[in-house]
Amino acid sequence: MLRKSILFSLGLGLLGACAVSPEDYKIGTKNGEDYYALDIQGAGGPNPTHLKFWSEKLCPQGYRVVSAKRDWITPGMNPGMNWYDVTIACPAR
Asked: How is residue 92 annotated by DSSP?
């Protein structure tokens, strides 16, 4: 039993160490705004649902899209999907 609880604690510790922080996406601050870089997948442009989800996670106080450009096309099972480099800005924390 003790061994299981130790392994469980180690697993939780590893999950915590792998948690994503907004600082992982931050590329700089300019004019009182923090800038973040994201990779968003989509068919004809960045998927609005994914973009909104990640942007609101990083910038709960509001955000604006600065740029979005196609990065690469997904080969294989889903060839119609593209990846986009998206830069967002939000008020500095």
From this structure: -
Q: What is the 3-state secondary structure (H, E, C) of 69-91?
A: EEEEECCCCCCCCEEEEEEEEEE
Domains of the chain, residue spans = 21-91
Q: What angle do CA 76, 79, 85 make, to 5 degrees?
A: 110
Separation of alpha carbons 22 and 25, rounded Å: 6
**Beta-bridge partners for 26:** 36
pLDDT, one tens digit per residue, over 2-20 is 444 443 444 444 444 445 5
The answer for residues whose C-beta is within 8 angstroms of residue 36's C-beta and 6 or more apart is 22, 25, 26, 27, 58, 59, 87, 88, 89, 90
Which residues, given as ranges, of the chain have pLDDT below 50? 1-18
Strand order in the sheet with 26-30: 26-30, 33-42, 82-91, 64-73
